[in-house]
Design a protein that fits this description.
It contains 16 helices and two strands. By secondary structure, it is mainly α. Strands 1-2 form a two-stranded antiparallel ribbon. The termini are far apart.
Length: about 325
C-alpha cells in the first residue's frame, strides 16, 4: 500500500519534472545556433507549413503541391500524421515555422516521458517507469533520428512505440481484451507517421510472436495479436492502398534493399559512426551481450524477447 501511494505521488510530481526537462531541451536547441538540424528536418517543416496554410484557406486535406518533387501528391506516398502534427505545433506557435519546430521537439520529449510513467504504474514498477521516461528521449538512436537524420516522423513514432509493445506483451501474458484496441490504434498511429517504420515494427513483433509461440505454445493469442496488427493496417483504408500503388514503390529497389545488409562486425562496432560518416545500422555490442546472456540466464517469461533480439541481429 505504501508503494502504491508513492506511485500516486510520482504521477503528480514527475509531469512537472518532464515539462521542465522538455523546456530545457527546447532552450538548448534554440540557443545552439544550428537548429533546425537534421537532413530531412526542413522537409517535415515544409509539409507542416503547407498543411497549416491549406487549412487556413479551408482545405483540410491538401492533395497536390507543384513544388513537391516538381509536382507530386504530397499526402499520397508520405504518411500524413506528422504533417498535421507539425501544422498543429505551428498553429500553437502563432504561425512561425521554426517556433513550431521547437514546440514539436518539446512535445515529443514530454509525451515520451509521460507514457513511460503510465506504463511503469501499470506494471507496478513506478520508479523504473519514471526513470525510463526521463531518459527515453535521450537514447542515442532517438537523438540520431531527431537531430541528425531529421526524421521527425520516426521521432513521433517513438511516442506510440512503448505503448504498442506494452499492449502486445500484456495481451500475450494476460489475455485481456482491453489491449486489442490499444494494439490496433497505436499501430495505426505509427503507420500514419511512418509506414516503413511501422512495417519494420510489425516484422519484429511477428518474429517475437513466433518465438513466443514455440516457447509458450499459445497459438491463439499469437494469432490474435497478428490479426490486430493487420487490422491496424486495414484501418488506414484507402490511403494505404493508394500509397502502395505507383510512385517510389514502382521503382526497382533491389539496390536500395542491399544497403540494409552489412557485415556483423559493422553492426556491432560502437566506433563506426564516430570514425566514419556512414549511416550504418548500429545494433550495439552491449545489446548483443545482454541478449545472449538473457537467453541463458534470464527468466523464462522474458527469454522470448532475448531470442527475438538475436534473430533480428542475425537477419
Amino acid at each position: 500500500m505504501k508503494k502504491k501511494n508513492k506511485a500516486i505521488y510520482l504521477l503528480f510530481l514527475m509531469p512537472f519534472v518532464y515539462f521542465a526537462t522538455a523546456c530545457f531541451v527546447v532552450w538548448l536547441v534554440k540557443t545552439s545556433g544550428i537548429y533546425p538540424s537534421g537532413s530531412d528536418t526542413m522537409y517535415h517543416i515544409f509539409r507542416g507549413d503547407y498543411v497549416y496554410n491549406s487549412i487556413k484557406e479551408g482545405s483540410w486535406y491538401p492533395i497536390y503541391n507543384s513544388m513537391w518533387y516538381n509536382g507530386v501528391e504530397i499526402m499520397r506516398y508520405w504518411a500524413p500524421l506528422t504533417a498535421y502534427y507539425m501544422a498543429l505545433c505551428q498553429m500553437i506557435a502563432g504561425g512561425g515555422q521554426l517556433a513550431g519546430y521547437l514546440i514539436f521537439v518539446g512535445s515529443v520529449c514530454f509525451f515520451n516521458s509521460i507514457l513511460w510513467l503510465i506504463i511503469g504504474r501499470k506494471m507496478n514498477r513506478p520508479y523504473l517507469g519514471a526513470f525510463v521516461g526521463l531518459i527515453w528521449f535521450f537514447m542515442p538512436n532517438n537523438l540520431l533520428a531527431l537531430f541528425v537524420e531529421g526524421n521527425l516522423a520516426r521521432s513521433l513514432c517513438m511516442i506510440f512505440l512503448p505503448v504498442f509493445i506494452y499492449a502486445v506483451c500484456e495481451y500475450l501474458s494476460e489475455r485481456k481484451r482491453i489491449y486489442i484496441p490499444i494494439i490496433i490504434v497505436t499501430f495505426a498511429l505509427m503507420a500514419m507517421c511512418h509506414l516503413g517504420y511501422a512495417g519494420m515494427i510489425a516484422l519484429a513483433v511477428l518474429i517475437y510472436c513466433i518465438v513466443y509461440m514455440f516457447q509458450q505454445g499459445n497459438k491463439r493469442a499469437v494469432l490474435e495479436v497478428i490479426v490486430s496488427i493487420l487490422l491496424g493496417f486495414m484501418v488506414l483504408g484507402i490511403w494505404l492502398v493508394a500509397s502502395l500503388n505507383g510512385g517510389i514503390t514502382s521503382l526497382d529497389n533491389s539496390e536500395n534493399m542491399a544497403n540494409f545488409f552489412q557485415k556483423l562486425v559493422v553492426t556491432l562496432n560502437p566506433l563506426d559512426r564516430i570514425k566514419s560518416n556512414n549511416s550504418h545500422f548500429y545494433y550495439g555490442i552491449a545489446a548483443c551481450i545482454i541478449a545472449v546472456c538473457g537467453i541463458f540466464l534470464g527468466y523464462k517469461k522474458s527469454r522470448a524477447g532475448f531470442v527475438t533480439a538475436v534473430v533480428i541481429l542475425v537477419c
